[in-house]
Amino acid sequence: MAGFVEALTPREKALSSAAAAFGFPWRGGKLSVPADSCSGRILVPVTAGENYPPFSRSTRDGYAVSSADCLGAASGSPAYLTLAGEIPMGAAPSFSIAPGQCALIHTGGILPEGADSVVMVEDTESAGNWIEVKMAVQKAENTIRRGEEFSVGDTMLKAGQKVDFRTAGLFAMAGIRHAVIARLAVGIISTGDEIAPPDTVRLPPGKVRDVNASMLSALLAGEGHTVQNYGIAEDTRDSLAASLREALRENDVVVISGGSSVSTRDHCSSILEDLPHPGLLVRGILMSPGKPTLIAGMKEDRQLVLGLPGHPFSCFISAYTVLLPLLNGLLWGKTEGPWKRVFVPVQEPVFGHTGIEEFIPCVLRNGRAFPLPVKSSFSKALAEADGLFRLSTSQETVRQGEEAEIWLW
Amino acid sequence: MAGFVEALTPREKALSSAAAAFGFPWRGGKLSVPADSCSGRILVPVTAGENYPPFSRSTRDGYAVSSADCLGAASGSPAYLTLAGEIPMGAAPSFSIAPGQCALIHTGGILPEGADSVVMVEDTESAGNWIEVKMAVQKAENTIRRGEEFSVGDTMLKAGQKVDFRTAGLFAMAGIRHAVIARLAVGIISTGDEIAPPDTVRLPPGKVRDVNASMLSALLAGEGHTVQNYGIAEDTRDSLAASLREALRENDVVVISGGSSVSTRDHCSSILEDLPHPGLLVRGILMSPGKPTLIAGMKEDRQLVLGLPGHPFSCFISAYTVLLPLLNGLLWGKTEGPWKRVFVPVQEPVFGHTGIEEFIPCVLRNGRAFPLPVKSSFSKALAEADGLFRLSTSQETVRQGEEAEIWLW
User: Fold this and answer.
1) What residue ranges do the domains of chain A occupy?
2) Euclidean distance between the first and final Cα of chain A, in Å?
3) Which residues of A374-399 are buried (b: 16+ CB within 10 A; e: fewer)?
4) Which of A108, A218, A341 sits opposite B367 (nearest CB)?
5) CATH number for region A340-408
6) Beta strand A303-308 with A253-257: parallel, antiparallel or unpaired?
7) Distance from CA of A372 to the nearest CA of B (A)
8) Which residues of chain B have a CB within 8 Å of the CB of A369?
9) Best interface-test mutation with B: which of A89, A126, A199 has the largest number of B CBs within 10 A?
10) A213 and chain B: CB distance < 8 Å anywhere?
11) B184: which DSSP letter?
């Protein structure tokens, strides 16, 4: 453990106490994007400006009828109706039906006046102008009424809803061309003398490329935020402090991805300690990996600063389980993450320890969840994983047949 | 059911027989994108061009030692080593250690020659130039050896792997700046006289906006494909045939999103029947929703044409469970979908019917899966859903406590 970690805070407590101390939500930056764009989350609830469907429609091919005319109709005792005409597609009916009449209608056609339901074509026989109805229908059967999908003023999408293939159709349906998504400006600072820029072709001895900045950028961009990279700060307090000042001038949130040496970590915590109220709130989280996570921020300026661990897998876990929930908290007040949480019975034990919350990459095979070893190749494990096993602080090993909690991407 | 559906093919059989008849994979278009881009799938496997880590590194703060020197070391019987120096971060060590010596090392530092492991700082006491080691270490302990994460020639990413936050770090680590992703050109044609363009502000009576083109575009763009929209074809055979000819000149794949009237569906199937070998292969799939799905294609020109149902929820299910697997089959030979499949015990019955494969939107609450009713508001159900329940053709209702199959986005 790093020297700066004085007491490890349980992750959920760290999130809720940070949200309380900062007075979330702050309501961050916003951006209008085409509604069929594939990134970001809805900033404020989207309400319907019109009814859908705009008229009561048939959901079947058949005959528009008054259900009262078909009361008790059956194969042996059909109802006989006269055909008043055909409802054109894409146009209002030019006629209404009187008692004893029906109208040929196609799926999506407007229900004519006088009709309250549709008899499916397979439940009828046609004999010229006479239609034999061999099955009774209930009122509204095989129709969708005006406004049934949504009515003017209905909430169509909640704040925080991801804009993706699931929402594109809804926007089209409602004629909404642009969505206002939440977009925070996030600055990323990397630290550590052993870190070289990711575009370094030939690595000098002792150096490795900066993994965390790219990983964080992709993670944040996927959530709709804009990312500016401030490169690699030198391992001195002054250099890191200067980078942080610059990044704070230009961003809502700054993420420092920690170098792995003790001195870098010390510089980082000492600089965060100097931030205005409430400053450095959380110095280490009771989770593995991801312990050396720092949460700081300034309530008046509405800016958040996080220190994340240097090891890429720890950095990822910390970003996914702490940074993303904090950004959602900042925007909407609820420190929720983007994962899909589900309990599943495991076929193989998932090994853990009590006293600390643990995250282990999880892969799905044939509909079952298995742990992926991280030790020697966390990057392949991460790329292959479908999500994470989460073992709470009170959980030890989850045995075969028991339920484990998984968080799927 | 529509007239053109002669025999319903089970979905998986439809996919495998289409893949066989078309001679998949065809190997489609490709596109080089920045490796930290958030869309698309890797076209061909990515192999490592260098070792990672590039040198054997310490994974802890402590002392680099020869494990032989610490044999049997314990609190009561420590090993005493002389401190030969400190390994600088981000540079090659300028010295090696002799038997009986150790070197101060930080997480990420290069292991000096003569050392094979690292003793954690908390297992030592320092007394000037003497280091007291109070815990034995095994060879390689607290280190990661050169190439342990990946070695030159190792497959880092498989073909078909999604490029996202999980891969961005891996690319950065390996110094890969661009990824070659699979990009198919897909043309989308909408049909149906009741359909108006999605940017229509005031809908004329009887019209609804085109939902499917926007939904399909978002779904396909999320998979990395480029989409060109051919608008709404008039409900005549000639108009639809002309649109299809135009779209086939410019795309690898054409998707016709079917109007809901019988005549549109008839035109569509009749046009697909005229396509060159093998032409129209599948006329309806044994699934609900999504029955009126057509699969056609031309082996020689390597072009695929699909007819999807007009109802937006049916269209979505058909695109998600048939179109996307076919595109993956076209590219890599395996007709797999993008979903994460997992079996979960249900708290509430999921109602189904035997004899047909069924898909029901599924929402996760407190780690449990619940069905969402679709009837009156499929668009909200889809936006809220975390995935789908899948009930196989042989499954009826899944009762409380039984396991159901879910496909999460």
Assistant:
1) 11-29+183-332, 32-52+154-182, 57-144, 340-408
2) 29
3) beebbbbbbbebbbbbbbebebeebe
4) A341
5) 2.40.340.10
6) parallel
7) 14
8) 342
9) A89
10) yes
11) -
* Yes or no, beta carbons of A210 and B172 under 8 Å apart: yes
CATH of domain A32-52+154-182: 3.90.105
Q: What is the ipTM score, two decimals?
A: 0.93
Q: How many CB atoms lie within 10 A of CB B75?
A: 9
Q: Does B92 touch chain A (CB under 8 A)?
A: yes
Q: Rounded CA gap, B158 and B155, in Å?
A: 7
**Which superfamily is assigned to A57-144 in CATH?**
Molybdopterin biosynthesis moea protein, domain 3. (2.170.190.11)
B177 touches chain A (CB under 8 A): yes
How many alpha carbons lie under 13 Å from residue A22 in its C-beta half-sphere? 33
> What are the backbone angles phi and psi of residue B373, rounded to the nearest 5°?
-70, 140
Q: How many residues does chain A have?
A: 409
Tell me the mean pLDDT per 10 residues along chain A, length 409. 62 97 87 76 93 93 96 95 94 95 94 97 93 96 94 94 92 90 95 92 93 95 94 93 97 88 80 96 95 95 95 95 98 96 96 96 97 81 95 95 97
Q: For B52-79, write each residue's pLDDT tens digit.
A: 999 999 989 999 999 999 999 999 999 9
Helix H, strand E, coil C: the string for chain A is CCCCCCCCECHHHHHHHHHHHHCCCCCCCEEEEECCCCCCEECCCEECCCCECCCCEECCCEEEECHHHHCCCCCCCCEEEEEEEECCCCCCCCCCCCCCEEEEECCCCECCCCCCEEEEHHHEEEECCEEEECCCCCCCCCEECCCCCECCCCEEECCCCECCHHHHHHHHHHCCCEEEEECCEEEEEEECCCEECCCCCCCCCCCEECCHHHHHHHHHHHCCCEEEEEEEECCCHHHHHHHHHHHHHHCCEEEEECCCCHHHHHHHHHHHHCCCCEEEEEECECEECCCCCEEEEECCCCEEEEEECCCHHHHHHHHHHHHHHHHHHHHHCCCCCCCEEEEEECCCCECCCCCCEEEEEEEEECCEEEECCCCCCHHHHHHHCCEEEEECCCCCCECCCCEEEEEEC
Return the closest-CA partner of residue B258 out of B278, B283, B226, B276. B283
State whether B261 and A368 contact (CB < 8 Å): no
pLDDT tens readout for residues B308-340: 999 899 999 999 999 999 999 999 999 999 999
B30: confidence class by pLDDT, cuts 50, 70, 90: confident
The gap from C-alpha B302 to its chain's centroid, in whole angstroms, comes to: 24
3-state SS, A381-403, equals HHHHCCEEEEECCCCCCECCCCE
A165 vs B contacts (CB less than 8 Å): 215, 218-219, 222
Give the pair of three-digit tokens for residue B280: 């129209």
Structure tokens at A199: 């575009």
Evaluate whether A34 touches A168 at the Cβ level (below 8 Å): no
Q: B295 pairs with which residues across the strands?
A: B282, B306
Question: What class, spelled out in words, does domain B11-29+183-332 have in CATH?
Answer: alpha beta
Q: Which of residues 109-128 of A touch B (CB under 8 A)?
A: 109-110
Question: Which residues, other chains included, contact A155 with Cβ-Cβ below 8 Å and sequence gap of 6+?
Answer: A45, A46, A47, A48
Query: What pTM did the predictor assign?
Result: 0.93
